[in-house]
Amino acid sequence: MQRQTAEVPEESEPDYRFTLANERTFLAWLRTALSLLAAGVALDQFVPQLGADGVRTALGVGLGVLSVVAAVAGLVRWRQVQRAMRRGQALPVARTVVVLAVGLAVVAVGVCVLLVAGG
């Protein structure tokens, strides 16, 4: 029985403009993560009149979790895109944006409910 080995496509250095664009996108992911974290802390610490402590804390933690997801997803995405560019492959599909969008929508609905309920 012969053992088959998967061929790794040959890698080449992509145009530096694409590499820098990929890096800027990664930095945007990090800015988003930092913004989500700041929003979570602000929601928990600076808006005491908005609902019960536990609800406010839960929404803040939700934003913190989304922050971690954004930071990790940005790093993973940057590596996947860089690898694809070096190998001349199609860019990978970005599925994490759906998770972030849904998570942020859930937190936003929670905040809106608290605002309508009179805090």
TrEMBL record:
Annotated compartments: Cell membrane
Source organism superkingdom: Bacteria
Keyword Membrane: yes
Pfam families (UniProt xref): DUF202
UniProt membrane topology term: Multi-pass membrane protein
Transmembrane segments: 26-43, 55-76, 97-117
InterPro entries: DUF202, IM_YidH-like
Keywords, ordered alphabetically: Cell membrane, Membrane, Transmembrane, Transmembrane helix
Domain DUF202, residue spans: 17-84
Protein's UniProt name: DUF202 domain-containing protein
Species this protein is from: Klenkia terrae
Upper lineage: Bacteria, Bacillati, Actinomycetota, Actinomycetes, Geodermatophilales
